[in-house]
Amino acid sequence: MKFARMGEPGSEVPVVIDGDHTYDLRPVTSDVNGDFLADDPVGRTQAALDAGSLPEIADAATLRLGSAIARPSAVICIGQNYAAHARESGAEPPTVPIMFLKTPNTVVGPDDTVTIPRGSEKTDWEVELGIVIGARAAYLDSPAEAAAHIAGYVVANDVSERTFQMEVSGGQWSKGKIAYGFNPTGPWLVTPDEVDAQNLRLRSWVNGEPRQDSNTNDMIFDIPTIVHHLSQYVTLEPGDLILTGTPQGVAFGGKFPYLRAGDVVEVEIEGLGHQRQKFVAWKAEK
Question: Residue 75: pLDDT above 80?
Fold first, then answer.
Protein backbone atom coordinates (compact mmCIF):
# COMPACT_ATOMS: atom_id res chain seq x y z
CA MET A 1 0.00 0.00 0.00
CA LYS A 2 1.19 3.53 -0.78
CA PHE A 3 0.31 6.46 1.45
CA ALA A 4 1.02 10.08 0.55
CA ARG A 5 0.08 13.65 1.40
CA MET A 6 -1.08 16.14 -1.22
CA GLY A 7 -1.78 19.85 -1.22
CA GLU A 8 -0.17 23.14 -0.30
CA PRO A 9 2.32 23.31 2.60
CA GLY A 10 0.48 23.13 5.89
CA SER A 11 -2.75 22.01 4.24
CA GLU A 12 -1.82 18.57 2.92
CA VAL A 13 -4.51 15.92 2.64
CA PRO A 14 -3.66 12.27 3.48
CA VAL A 15 -4.25 9.91 0.57
CA VAL A 16 -3.86 6.28 -0.39
CA ILE A 17 -2.75 5.37 -3.90
CA ASP A 18 -4.40 2.24 -5.25
CA GLY A 19 -3.22 1.46 -8.78
CA ASP A 20 -4.11 4.43 -10.99
CA HIS A 21 -6.50 5.87 -8.40
CA THR A 22 -5.86 8.21 -5.50
CA TYR A 23 -8.30 8.29 -2.61
CA ASP A 24 -8.86 10.82 0.17
CA LEU A 25 -7.95 9.20 3.52
CA ARG A 26 -9.64 11.77 5.74
CA PRO A 27 -12.58 9.45 6.54
CA VAL A 28 -9.94 7.24 8.22
CA THR A 29 -7.32 9.68 9.55
CA SER A 30 -6.53 13.38 9.72
CA ASP A 31 -2.96 12.77 8.50
CA VAL A 32 -0.27 10.19 7.79
CA ASN A 33 1.04 10.60 11.32
CA GLY A 34 2.13 8.48 14.25
CA ASP A 35 -1.40 7.84 15.54
CA PHE A 36 -2.50 6.53 12.15
CA LEU A 37 0.62 4.41 11.60
CA ALA A 38 0.34 2.82 15.05
CA ASP A 39 -3.28 1.71 14.56
CA ASP A 40 -3.38 -0.87 11.75
CA PRO A 41 -3.13 1.61 8.87
CA VAL A 42 -3.28 -1.05 6.16
CA GLY A 43 -6.22 -2.93 7.65
CA ARG A 44 -8.25 0.19 8.34
CA THR A 45 -7.52 1.65 4.91
CA GLN A 46 -8.33 -1.58 3.09
CA ALA A 47 -11.62 -1.85 4.96
CA ALA A 48 -12.52 1.70 3.91
CA LEU A 49 -11.55 0.99 0.29
CA ASP A 50 -13.64 -2.18 0.27
CA ALA A 51 -16.59 -0.28 1.73
CA GLY A 52 -16.28 2.45 -0.91
CA SER A 53 -16.10 5.13 1.77
CA LEU A 54 -12.99 6.92 0.46
CA PRO A 55 -13.69 9.64 -2.14
CA GLU A 56 -11.45 9.56 -5.19
CA ILE A 57 -9.29 12.65 -5.82
CA ALA A 58 -9.81 13.25 -9.52
CA ASP A 59 -7.17 15.98 -9.89
CA ALA A 60 -4.44 14.21 -7.90
CA ALA A 61 -1.91 14.53 -10.74
CA THR A 62 -2.10 18.33 -10.51
CA LEU A 63 -1.54 18.58 -6.75
CA ARG A 64 1.72 19.25 -4.96
CA LEU A 65 3.14 16.28 -3.11
CA GLY A 66 3.95 17.02 0.51
CA SER A 67 6.31 14.92 2.58
CA ALA A 68 5.04 11.35 2.66
CA ILE A 69 4.64 11.54 6.44
CA ALA A 70 3.55 14.33 8.74
CA ARG A 71 6.30 16.07 10.66
CA PRO A 72 7.91 13.36 12.84
CA SER A 73 8.95 13.76 16.45
CA ALA A 74 12.48 12.72 15.50
CA VAL A 75 14.69 12.21 12.45
CA ILE A 76 17.57 9.90 13.31
CA CYS A 77 20.32 9.21 10.79
CA ILE A 78 23.02 6.62 10.28
CA GLY A 79 26.31 7.84 8.81
CA GLN A 80 28.81 6.08 6.56
CA ASN A 81 26.66 2.98 6.20
CA TYR A 82 28.01 2.06 2.76
CA ALA A 83 31.69 1.04 2.71
CA ALA A 84 32.57 2.85 -0.53
CA HIS A 85 31.01 6.07 0.74
CA ALA A 86 32.95 5.83 3.98
CA ARG A 87 36.17 5.50 2.00
CA GLU A 88 35.36 8.38 -0.35
CA SER A 89 34.87 10.44 2.82
CA GLY A 90 38.37 9.50 3.99
CA ALA A 91 37.28 7.03 6.67
CA GLU A 92 37.30 3.30 7.19
CA PRO A 93 33.89 1.62 7.41
CA PRO A 94 32.52 1.91 10.97
CA THR A 95 32.32 -1.04 13.32
CA VAL A 96 29.24 0.31 15.11
CA PRO A 97 26.47 2.49 13.63
CA ILE A 98 27.27 6.21 13.59
CA MET A 99 24.24 8.21 14.68
CA PHE A 100 23.36 11.87 14.17
CA LEU A 101 20.15 13.90 14.13
CA LYS A 102 18.22 16.09 11.76
CA THR A 103 15.48 18.41 13.00
CA PRO A 104 11.82 17.68 12.15
CA ASN A 105 11.52 20.89 10.09
CA THR A 106 13.98 19.50 7.57
CA VAL A 107 11.19 17.18 6.36
CA VAL A 108 9.54 18.72 3.28
CA GLY A 109 7.94 17.59 0.03
CA PRO A 110 9.89 15.49 -2.46
CA ASP A 111 9.81 18.13 -5.18
CA ASP A 112 10.00 21.26 -3.02
CA THR A 113 12.64 23.89 -3.72
CA VAL A 114 15.65 23.68 -1.37
CA THR A 115 17.46 26.80 -0.21
CA ILE A 116 21.25 26.70 -0.03
CA PRO A 117 22.19 28.08 3.41
CA ARG A 118 23.64 31.55 3.76
CA GLY A 119 27.41 31.38 3.28
CA SER A 120 27.39 27.79 2.05
CA GLU A 121 30.08 26.65 -0.37
CA LYS A 122 29.63 22.90 0.11
CA THR A 123 25.97 21.91 -0.13
CA ASP A 124 25.72 18.22 -1.07
CA TRP A 125 23.12 15.57 -1.94
CA GLU A 126 22.62 12.07 -0.48
CA VAL A 127 19.99 9.60 -1.65
CA GLU A 128 18.88 7.42 1.27
CA LEU A 129 16.36 4.78 2.23
CA GLY A 130 14.17 6.04 5.05
CA ILE A 131 12.54 3.76 7.62
CA VAL A 132 9.26 4.99 9.13
CA ILE A 133 8.44 3.64 12.58
CA GLY A 134 4.96 2.19 13.13
CA ALA A 135 5.12 0.97 16.73
CA ARG A 136 7.01 2.25 19.74
CA ALA A 137 10.44 0.63 20.01
CA ALA A 138 12.59 0.72 23.13
CA TYR A 139 15.27 -1.78 24.16
CA LEU A 140 14.40 -4.38 21.56
CA ASP A 141 15.91 -7.72 22.54
CA SER A 142 17.13 -8.62 19.06
CA PRO A 143 17.16 -7.42 15.43
CA ALA A 144 14.49 -10.01 14.72
CA GLU A 145 11.98 -7.82 16.60
CA ALA A 146 12.55 -4.81 14.35
CA ALA A 147 10.10 -5.76 11.58
CA ALA A 148 7.10 -5.47 13.92
CA HIS A 149 7.99 -1.82 14.54
CA ILE A 150 8.31 -0.67 10.90
CA ALA A 151 5.38 1.02 9.15
CA GLY A 152 7.12 1.36 5.80
CA TYR A 153 9.82 2.98 3.72
CA VAL A 154 10.41 6.28 1.93
CA VAL A 155 12.90 7.95 -0.37
CA ALA A 156 14.88 10.70 1.35
CA ASN A 157 17.52 13.19 0.27
CA ASP A 158 19.80 13.81 3.24
CA VAL A 159 20.96 17.23 2.03
CA SER A 160 24.18 18.25 3.79
CA GLU A 161 26.45 21.29 4.15
CA ARG A 162 29.93 19.84 4.48
CA THR A 163 31.73 22.87 5.95
CA PHE A 164 29.14 23.06 8.71
CA GLN A 165 29.21 19.28 9.15
CA MET A 166 32.96 18.69 9.19
CA GLU A 167 34.93 21.93 9.65
CA VAL A 168 32.97 24.00 12.17
CA SER A 169 31.07 21.14 13.75
CA GLY A 170 32.95 20.61 16.97
CA GLY A 171 32.52 16.92 16.18
CA GLN A 172 28.72 17.11 15.83
CA TRP A 173 27.65 16.34 12.27
CA SER A 174 24.15 17.70 12.78
CA LYS A 175 25.28 21.31 12.18
CA GLY A 176 25.57 20.47 8.51
CA LYS A 177 22.30 18.56 8.35
CA ILE A 178 19.63 20.73 9.94
CA ALA A 179 18.96 23.67 7.61
CA TYR A 180 15.26 24.06 6.89
CA GLY A 181 14.16 21.78 4.04
CA PHE A 182 17.29 19.61 4.13
CA ASN A 183 15.27 16.36 4.09
CA PRO A 184 12.90 16.05 1.12
CA THR A 185 10.84 12.94 1.90
CA GLY A 186 8.58 10.84 -0.31
CA PRO A 187 6.72 10.82 -2.68
CA TRP A 188 5.13 7.84 -0.93
CA LEU A 189 5.28 5.84 2.26
CA VAL A 190 5.35 2.27 0.96
CA THR A 191 4.37 -0.53 3.33
CA PRO A 192 6.87 -3.37 3.92
CA ASP A 193 4.84 -5.97 2.00
CA GLU A 194 5.31 -3.97 -1.23
CA VAL A 195 9.13 -4.01 -1.44
CA ASP A 196 12.22 -5.98 -0.48
CA ALA A 197 13.76 -3.02 1.30
CA GLN A 198 17.15 -4.67 1.64
CA ASN A 199 17.49 -5.13 -2.14
CA LEU A 200 16.54 -1.85 -3.82
CA ARG A 201 18.48 0.14 -6.38
CA LEU A 202 19.05 3.75 -5.32
CA ARG A 203 20.32 6.50 -7.62
CA SER A 204 20.88 10.24 -7.86
CA TRP A 205 21.48 12.77 -10.61
CA VAL A 206 22.57 16.44 -10.71
CA ASN A 207 21.39 18.44 -13.71
CA GLY A 208 20.58 15.15 -15.40
CA GLU A 209 24.07 13.70 -14.95
CA PRO A 210 24.38 10.43 -12.99
CA ARG A 211 25.95 10.60 -9.54
CA GLN A 212 25.05 7.70 -7.22
CA ASP A 213 24.05 4.21 -8.30
CA SER A 214 24.02 1.44 -5.70
CA ASN A 215 21.77 -1.01 -3.89
CA THR A 216 20.52 -1.16 -0.32
CA ASN A 217 22.00 -4.65 -0.06
CA ASP A 218 25.39 -2.91 0.19
CA MET A 219 24.59 -1.45 3.62
CA ILE A 220 27.12 -2.24 6.33
CA PHE A 221 24.39 -2.36 8.99
CA ASP A 222 21.10 -3.74 7.69
CA ILE A 223 17.64 -2.49 8.55
CA PRO A 224 16.90 -4.83 11.50
CA THR A 225 20.33 -4.09 13.00
CA ILE A 226 19.80 -0.34 12.73
CA VAL A 227 16.38 -0.37 14.41
CA HIS A 228 17.54 -2.72 17.15
CA HIS A 229 20.72 -0.71 17.79
CA LEU A 230 18.94 2.66 17.95
CA SER A 231 16.32 1.27 20.32
CA GLN A 232 19.03 0.72 22.91
CA TYR A 233 19.62 4.48 23.11
CA VAL A 234 16.42 6.24 22.03
CA THR A 235 12.73 5.43 22.24
CA LEU A 236 11.48 5.34 18.67
CA GLU A 237 7.93 6.62 18.36
CA PRO A 238 5.36 5.91 15.63
CA GLY A 239 5.90 8.31 12.74
CA ASP A 240 9.62 8.78 13.47
CA LEU A 241 11.98 8.65 10.52
CA ILE A 242 15.33 6.86 10.32
CA LEU A 243 17.71 7.59 7.43
CA THR A 244 19.96 4.63 6.72
CA GLY A 245 22.99 6.18 5.01
CA THR A 246 24.05 6.96 1.46
CA PRO A 247 26.28 5.22 -1.09
CA GLN A 248 29.30 6.69 -2.86
CA GLY A 249 28.94 9.39 -5.50
CA VAL A 250 28.43 12.59 -3.51
CA ALA A 251 30.35 15.84 -3.90
CA PHE A 252 32.20 15.25 -0.62
CA GLY A 253 34.08 12.42 -2.33
CA GLY A 254 35.91 14.94 -4.53
CA LYS A 255 34.79 13.75 -8.00
CA PHE A 256 31.91 16.17 -8.41
CA PRO A 257 31.30 19.87 -7.70
CA TYR A 258 29.09 20.99 -4.83
CA LEU A 259 25.65 22.39 -5.56
CA ARG A 260 25.07 25.92 -6.75
CA ALA A 261 21.91 27.99 -7.18
CA GLY A 262 19.99 26.73 -10.19
CA ASP A 263 21.16 23.12 -9.90
CA VAL A 264 18.53 20.39 -10.02
CA VAL A 265 18.95 17.21 -7.96
CA GLU A 266 16.96 14.05 -8.57
CA VAL A 267 16.99 10.99 -6.32
CA GLU A 268 15.19 7.70 -6.77
CA ILE A 269 14.79 4.35 -5.05
CA GLU A 270 13.32 1.37 -6.86
CA GLY A 271 9.71 0.84 -5.82
CA LEU A 272 9.65 3.91 -3.58
CA GLY A 273 9.51 6.72 -6.13
CA HIS A 274 11.41 9.68 -7.52
CA GLN A 275 12.20 13.18 -6.23
CA ARG A 276 13.30 16.37 -7.99
CA GLN A 277 14.52 19.52 -6.22
CA LYS A 278 15.75 22.82 -7.59
CA PHE A 279 18.34 24.47 -5.35
CA VAL A 280 18.17 28.25 -4.91
CA ALA A 281 20.28 30.89 -3.20
CA TRP A 282 19.41 32.11 0.28
CA LYS A 283 17.69 35.53 0.42
CA ALA A 284 16.92 37.59 3.48
CA GLU A 285 13.24 37.77 4.29
CA LYS A 286 11.72 41.22 3.88
Answer: yes
